[in-house]
């Protein structure tokens, strides 16, 4: 097996990234994550050759949480259930498993973040309001809902899997990245880390500090 060459590429046209630079950056981030995910909320990082897949386990702390219809029935039939049954029904959903997919937009020449979730208690697809409640930090909700500098959250078919997925539209990503232009040149991995700090953090995907050590 050939050794992976060291990353020496400097980004050619920030805030854009080429296909070769994107591949190099994704592979470098996968390699960096190999033995540094313990104790973080990232479960895995995988570069498939077409997309970078980041799996995250996220705790839910939402007092507004409402379980699916079978749990909503609790309020109407509580007299037929013991207190333990009610508590178990209402305490479901302690975490989400979030699958993030990073692809390259051929139109905007920047990465695009797609994501889908699995609830720990039920398999129903989350609606847009639940996505905002559970995925988006409150500090980012207004800008995303109003299609601010980050662009809004939309749903579309994933360009690789063709499955429905939420994504952050990349139309405003170049402008947002330009505002963060570093004073020194970036390599592809550094570009992806900067991009994740901007776009990923808007939906709670923060780069673990262990990866930056």
From TrEMBL:
One of its GO terms (cellular component) is cytosol. InterPro entries: Atg3/Atg10. GO terms for biological process: autophagosome assembly; autophagy of mitochondrion; protein modification by small protein conjugation; protein transport. Keywords: Autophagy, Protein transport, Transferase, Transport, Ubl conjugation pathway. The keyword Translocase does not apply. GO terms for molecular function: Atg12 conjugating enzyme activity. Gene3D superfamilies: 3.30.1460.50. The keyword Transport applies. Belongs to the ATG10 family. This is Ubiquitin-like-conjugating enzyme ATG10. It comes from Exophiala viscosa.
